[in-house]
Amino acid sequence: MQTYMTRGTCSRQILFDVTEDLKVKNVKFIGGCSGNLQAVARLVDGKHVDEVISTLKGIKCRSNTSCGDQLAIALEEYKNKLANPEIYKKK
After folding, report:
1. What is the pLDDT of residue 5?
2. What is the secondary structure of 18-46 as a DSSP string?
3. Alpha carbons 1 and 8: distance in angstroms, whole number
4. Between the CA of residue 89 and those of 1, 15, 69, 81, 84, what are the distances in Å?
5. Rounded distance, CA 29 to CA 10, Å?
6. CA dist 29 to 21, 26, 35, 76, 91, Å?
7. DSSP classification of residue 82
8. What is the mean pLDDT of each run of 10 residues along the chain (91 residues)?
9. pLDDT of residue 84
10. What is the pLDDT of residue 70?
11. What are phi and psi of 28, to 5 degrees?
12. Element (H or E) spanning 2, and its range?
């Protein structure tokens, strides 16, 4: 399970899995508007990472971001880690 600490949103953290074929699974937002974020989590479940990013990136709520935008940023970071593992190695 991946963990992402959000910035500028009511939710504090996003937990999610990504399958080998880059499908988003098991999204859980910690904090924030429970009903709305449960809906977002269900709507993105099983979708390809790139589809989720293109759908949610840039949606604004407060602080020039949103929980959906933060999920897109988290998934972009995940993809960057896959593409450049040497940069993200723990020391």
Report:
1. 97
2. E-TT-BEEEEEEEES-HHHHHHHHHHHTT
3. 22
4. 17, 20, 25, 9, 9
5. 10
6. 23, 10, 11, 17, 28
7. H
8. 94 96 97 94 97 97 93 96 76 48
9. 81
10. 97
11. -140, 125
12. strand 2-5
Residue bearing tokens 């790139």: 50
The pTM of the full predicted model, rounded to 2 decimals, is 0.90
Considering only CA atoms, give the Rg of the chain.
13
From CA 10, how far away is CA 84, in angstroms rounded?
Answer: 30
Tokens of 85: 């593992």
Q: Which two tokens stand for residue 16?
A: 């999610």
The residue assigned the tokens 């880690």 is 81
What residue type is 53 in one-letter code?
A: I
DSSP-assigned beta bridge partners for residue 25: 17
